Every structure is written in structure tokens, then in C-alpha cells.
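Structural prep section.
Before we set up the soaks we want a predicted structure of the protein with guanosine-5'-monophosphate in place, mainly to decide which crystallisation condition to try first. Input record follows.
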Amino acid sequence: MELGPRLTEGKTKIIYAHPDDPSLALMVHKDGITAGDGARRSEIPGKGVLAGRTTANVFRLLARAGLATHFIDAPEPTLTVVRRCTMLPLEVVIRRLAAGSYLRRNPDCAEGVRFEPPLVEFFLKDDAAHDPLISPVEIAARNLATAAEVEQITSTARVVFATLERAWASHGITLVDLKIEFGRLPSGELVVADVIDNDSWRIWPGGERARMLDKQVYRDATLVDEALLADVLARYELVARLTDEFASADSV
Ligand code: 5GP
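Run finished without errors. Recording the C-alpha cells verbatim:
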């Protein structure tokens, strides 16, 4: 498919304008994988195809669950057509089980403590400040979103989580936590945007951290060599294959 002008490039994707329709954009998924604020970087040939496939499967599931998203279509394996929106500079993290940065910020909490309902946290996207936690009050004070919009984001994030948690549970896999982002359409409406792929969540088969299938394998590795990258790719392939079922009619 023909691409319009390049709008922005991230570590794992490039966003282009749509050649004909100014209300759309094109996301091209790259083979890059990074960790530690970009301190660790690798290329895994084939990852972009799997990221495009996984994100399309996830967004089709969310659309079927009635959620407003930026997703339109995935006409090629590495290409996602989306509604053009202005991204909120926020990472919205939903947690069912305590893990990762939550444990570092709350050292008295044990790994795996269950949140009911899932905990929703906001992080400001600010590389120089290492994406700090930000409160709903601060989000409104900075005019990133109104207090009412933060409530709407929180409830939507919980629906996104519940939808994916159910889908993963049908494979015997525990969705531990999830990072999503929101965009604002020209109308002002907030939609679930960006990608949701195997970089975006912790998924533990049988609830066992040692069996994790997600990007955390790459983040945690003490040595990044060919064998590690092949192992990471195999997990991403398995995850993409499992999410193929998300997009089918009987999975919600
Ligand atoms: P934590 O805050 O515990 O490091 O991460 C919580 C969840 O958000 C995990 O599932 C993690 O994969 C995801 N996450 C956190 N930061 C990022 C990020 O910068 N990019 C992506 N794709 N996911 C993130």
C-alpha cells in the first residue's frame, strides 16, 4: 500500500499519513525491540509482522466488545490503518496482580497480590524523567485531560483489561497487567489507540511467572545473544497464533 508523508517514528513503529484520506494514518510495525529506556536495543527479523498481527487481533476483539478504538484495518502484515488522532502523553497501566514497577514502588507488597477491581495507574510519557507516575489531579492540572475524561479513561481501561483477561483465560493464561494509550479524535472523542501487542502486557501461562510469554523475557535477560532473540521470537510467534482466536466470533 502506498504511504503518505512520514509523521513520526518510534522504537517499534513508524506512523505515516494516509496518501488519500487526511482522517487516517498508517502504522508500520518494525522489527526493533528495546528495554531500559532504550539502553538495550535489538532487531528481531519477523517481530514487526507478529506485532502487526497481534495488535490487529487485539483491536478486532476490542471493537467486537463495543470499545471505541483507532483501529480500521490491517491490509498487510506489518501495516495497520488507524484513525488519525492526537495521542495523550500517558501510559495507562491496568494491573490484576502486583508485579514489575508496582513492586519497586511498593516494596512491602508481595508479587502476585490481586487487585479487585484491577488497579489503574497513569504514567506521564517523558523519556527524560523516565515516565513518572502521575495522578488524576496532575493530569487535569496539566490540561492533558479533564477530571471527567480521566474517569472515562479509567473505566474504559478496565473494560479493555476485562476483555483481554477473558480472552487469555480461555487459553489458560493469566493477564497480569497491561499498558494502553489513548488518542483524541478531531471531534474531541477519546479512543483506545497505539498498539497493544506482546510488548504491552505480562502474560503468565497457568499464572506462573517462570512461564511468561511476553517482552519481559527480553527485559530480564542477563545476556542478549542469538539464542535469546530466537527464544523471544518463538514466544512472540506463539502469542500471535493464540491471539488469532481473539478475532474469531466465539472468543468474547
Ligand atoms: P511496569 O510498570 O510494571 O513496568 O509495567 C506494567 C505493564 O505495562 C507491563 O505489562 C509492561 O509490559 C507495560 N509497559 C510498561 N511500560 C511500557 C512501555 O514503555 N512500552 C510498552 N509497550 N509497555 C510498557
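Observations: Helices lie at 47-64, 101-105, 136-141, 147-169, 216-220, 226-244.
Flagged for discussion at group meeting.
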